[in-house]
């Protein structure tokens, strides 16, 4: 409804500004009516449009005022009411519905829980001033206002704060656009050649100015801009869909060559779809059945249980295994470290358990060095080998007694590349000022997407290490290709194939993660990844020829749909393919 109302008012006001045919005039008469009714309709439409995009509505209203379509007073009043009503609505959403709203689409896509946690921490430390500042700091308004309702702050007082913040912001944006529109509208219309196109061009120009120039006025905004451009230059920070596009095209070409796009999923017949997507971590580890000295204690929590009931089971598991905090909580189905938490108290555990309605793993925490070991074995080979070794380093910043943790992250030449991630992970302590010389670790999940630094450690490979992983891999019937995530307290013992713990085993889409080492040239990255997929298709083709179930593209793409679409909407898909427990 809001979209339709906004579209109608823009169309009608543009017609009013630049003239139109008889039909347009009749529309004008219907909307404007007589006297004050037209003014009320216009203000109501501006309010509705502001619920879609506040900045765009302010800019559009200022432009329409500049062209004489509406008065500047109408533009200011409509935008002020739209922003204030929207802010109060966000507050009451947090107050009445709370964290439940963060798990419901589309709200969970718009308001991130990590941002709400940061807003909550700000409010507890700095009080109402944060509400006023939030209106002017990009990305902080919605989570901060939501957090103010979540904390059940004084509703009347905060409604006044929202009004004061809007009373400052609206005149700046609407008034600035109004003045700019008067000065530039005729020139842009002359260059573009059409009045309506000129108005749209001017609006787009001013919107870009607001979105780009405003953040650059702060140190935080400038450093985030530096990080943005650095990520564009360094392969390890490219968006996954961009970085993997050549690999996907190569895999599709191999699929066409083998007359089966999904053939690669037969690389591990013992894992559902080979570990392509949506596989169960506990099922894989249970089927691997590593020796007792290499295992980490774990148990599975069923989906949809109450957080308090889950916590009882967590405590029972810890008592049974003789464990104390910290422990690891993570989804049974997941990728790239999403949803993995190291928790150190019942309170943290309850918070994490309440934020995930899917099946979860409780796992013993293993301290020490974190490594990724990529292994493969051709079904006809007597032994398998270690193709890649990745050392996972957890980044730190060093305090100077003056700057906050947030400033240290933004000022660090490498941390700034992943600043948004580190700011989200450390949302509760961004105002902490570390003493001079004190180091602060920025993350503790051994995944590049979650902030770990990946280093090429192939020089650590030894025959004893390869033999140890080959013995473990052979325990899993139908496993030939994947990556072990392990932890060890001693690199020397690890090289002897001793004293390490298996955290996870990943299947056909895991890959050799040493390519994320920033010292490796991009051409070598793709040469390695292309070779990985050629090996995978060769193994899969042999497995199918030996009697493994032949996968179909429909099953593979269906699994993608289930994982990325249905799960994103909160729906639980059914299994599409059973594993071949024993090779025929």
From TrEMBL:
GO terms for cellular component: plasma membrane. One of its GO terms (molecular function) is metal ion binding. Residues 298-531 form the ATP-grasp domain. Pfam families: VTT_dom (PF09335). The keyword Kinase does not apply. Keywords: Cell membrane, Membrane, Transmembrane, Transmembrane helix. InterPro entries: ATP-grasp (IPR011761), DedA-like (IPR032818), VTT_dom (IPR032816). It is a multi-pass membrane protein. It is found in: Cell membrane. The chain crosses the membrane at residues 29-51, 63-85, 158-181, 188-210. The keyword Nucleus does not apply. This is ATP-grasp domain-containing protein. It comes from marine sediment metagenome. The lineage of its organism: unclassified sequences, metagenomes, ecological metagenomes.
């Amino acid at each position: 409804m809001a979209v339709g109302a906004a579209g109608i008012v823009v169309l009608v006001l543009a017609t009013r500004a630049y003239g139109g045919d008889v039909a347009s005039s009749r529309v004008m008469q219907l909307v404007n009516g007589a006297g004050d009714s037209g003014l009320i309709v216009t203000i109501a439409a501006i309010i509705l449009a502001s619920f879609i995009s506040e900045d765009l509505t302010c800019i559009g209203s200022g432009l329409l005022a500049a062209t004489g379509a509406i008065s500047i007073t109408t533009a200011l009043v409509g935008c002020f009411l739209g922003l204030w009503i929207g802010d109060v609505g966000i507050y009451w959403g947090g107050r009445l519905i709370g964290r439940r709203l963060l798990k419901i689409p589309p709200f969970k896509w718009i308001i991130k829980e990590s941002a709400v946690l940061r807003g909550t921490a700000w409010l507890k430390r700095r009080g109402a001033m944060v509400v006023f500042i939030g209106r002017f700091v990009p990305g902080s308004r919605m989570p901060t206002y939501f957090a103010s309702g979540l904390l059940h702050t004084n509703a009347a007082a905060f409604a006044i704060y929202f009004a004061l913040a809007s009373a400052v912001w609206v005149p700046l944006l609407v008034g600035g656009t109004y003045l700019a529109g008067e000065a530039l509208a005729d020139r842009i219309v002359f260059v573009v050649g059409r009045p309506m196109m000129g108005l749209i061009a001017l609006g787009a120009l001013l919107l870009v100015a607001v979105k780009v120039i405003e953040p650059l006025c702060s140190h935080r905004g400038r450093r985030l801009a530096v990080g943005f451009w650095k990520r564009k230059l360094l392969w390890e920070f490219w968006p996954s869909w961009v970085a993997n596009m050549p690999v996907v095209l190569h895999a599709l070409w191999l699929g066409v060559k083998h007359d089966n796009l999904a053939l690669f999923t037969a690389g591990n017949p013992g894992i559902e779809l080979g570990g392509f997507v949506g596989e169960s971590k506990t099922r894989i580890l249970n089927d691997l059945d590593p020796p007792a000295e290499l295992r980490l204690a774990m148990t599975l929590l069923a989906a949809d249980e109450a957080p308090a009931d889950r916590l009882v089971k967590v405590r029972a598991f810890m008592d049974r295994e003789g464990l104390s905090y910290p422990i690891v909580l993570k989804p049974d189905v997941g990728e790239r470290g999403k949803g993995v938490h190291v928790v150190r108290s019942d309170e943290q555990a309850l918070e994490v358990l309440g934020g995930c309605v899917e099946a979860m793993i409780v796992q013993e925490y293993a301290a020490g060095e974190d490594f990724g070991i990529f292994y493969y074995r051709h079904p006809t080979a007597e032994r398998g080998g270690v193709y890649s070794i990745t050392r996972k380093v957890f980044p730190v910043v060093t305090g100077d007694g003056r700057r906050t943790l947030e400033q240290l992250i933004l000022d660090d030449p490498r941390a700034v590349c992943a600043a948004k991630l580190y700011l989200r992970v450390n949302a509760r302590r961004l105002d902490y000022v570390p003493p001079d010389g004190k180091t602060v670790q920025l993350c503790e999940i051994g995944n590049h997407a979650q902030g770990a630094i990946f280093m090429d450690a192939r020089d650590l490979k030894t025959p004893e290490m390869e033999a140890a992983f080959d013995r473990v891999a052979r325990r899993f019937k139908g496993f030939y290709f994947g990556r072990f995530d392990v932890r060890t307290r001693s690199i020397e013992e690890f090289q002897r194939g001793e004293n390490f713990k298996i955290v996870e085993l990943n299947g056909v889409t895991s890959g050799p993660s040493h390519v994320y080492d920033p010292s490796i040239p991009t051409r070598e990255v793709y040469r390695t990844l292309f070779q990985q997929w050629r090996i995978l298709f060769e193994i899969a083709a042999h497995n199918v020829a030996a009697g493994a179930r032949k996968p179909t593209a429909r099953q593979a793409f269906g699994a993608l749909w289930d994982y990325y679409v249905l799960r994103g909407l909160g729906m639980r898909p059914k299994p599409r393919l059973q594993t071949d427990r024993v090779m025929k």
